[in-house]
Amino acid sequence: MLESEDEYLNHLAKDYKINWDRKDIVFFPFETADLNAIFVNQRSEKIQLKGLSSVYIDSLLYLVEKMTGEGSGKVRKAYKMLEE
User: Fold this and answer.
1) Residue of 2, 51, 61 whose CA lies nearest to 31
2) Which residues contact 40 (CB under 8 A, 6 or more apart)?
3) CA distances, 64 to each of 29, 73, 75 (Å)
4) 56-80, pLDDT tens digit by residue?
């Protein structure tokens, strides 16, 4: 993350009591097509996984696994249900 991006994130979170720990920051790999899908999601205020690269989706699923403590089987099964 660039220092300016870090400062902007801190500005957005200034009203919240968040203690950032730099070692816990997760950087997502994404491709140009992912950026387009991200912008579409922001404009529509919905989350659509269609258009995101498999690397990006795998990173999201990994993050969900770590946050919830669920195994990859359950997370992948839930993802497959969302795809339908």
Assistant:
1) 51
2) 48, 51
3) 16, 12, 7
4) 888 888 888 888 988 878 998 888 8
Token duo for residue 62:
């990994």
Q: What does the DSSP 8-state code read for residue 26?
A: -
Structure tokens at 38: 């991200």
| Residue carrying the six token digits 């999601």 | 41
CB 5 within 8 A of CB 11: no
What secondary structure letter does DSSP report for 23? G
Q: pLDDT tens digits, residue range 31-52? A: 788 888 888 888 887 778 888 8
- pTM of the entire structure? 0.58
